[in-house]
Design a protein that fits this description.
Blueprint lengths: L7 E3 L6 E3 H9 L11 E4 L6 E4 L11 H4 L3 H17 L9 H24 L2
Antiparallel strand pairs: 1-2, 3-4
Length: 123
């Protein structure tokens, strides 16, 4: 479908081959084009906080790193964000299911969430 990056994801809902950036833009609205002149209020699927953005999306700026990490430092930041949500009790209970995470967030998002849950359970 697109040729931006070397890493592709086959979307389970639309059955298209998308790069990670396009997958995140299509399904979560991350870096999506502007929806209009007014702000859109949304609720984050990870931390459940209400935030405003200029595009229709389902992930706040703080939690966007969970889905968009590309390097090892970004990966650590994503694990730290999920760990923070777990320790404060804000992580949605559905996100503890690995199959649910893989279906809804892809393998990269699921990897971050499961690694953070594993590290928290060892403490």
């Amino acid at each position: 479908m697109c040729g931006k990056n070397d890493e592709y994801h086959t979307c389970s809902t639309c059955n298209k081959h998308l790069c990670i950036e396009c997958f995140n833009a299509v399904h979560f609205g991350i870096n999506a084009p502007r929806a209009g002149k007014s702000m859109v209020y949304n609720r984050c699927v990870f931390c459940d906080s209400v935030y405003a953005s200029n595009a229709k999306c389902s992930v706040c700026d703080k939690c966007a790193i969970i889905l968009t990490w590309k390097s090892s430092m970004n990966y650590l930041a994503a694990v730290n964000r999920v760990t923070e949500l777990i320790l404060t009790g804000k992580l949605n209970a559905k996100l503890r299911n690995e199959n649910y995470c893989k279906e809804n967030f892809g393998t990269r998002g699921a990897q971050v969430i499961m690694d953070a849950i594993d590290s928290c359970s060892k403490k």
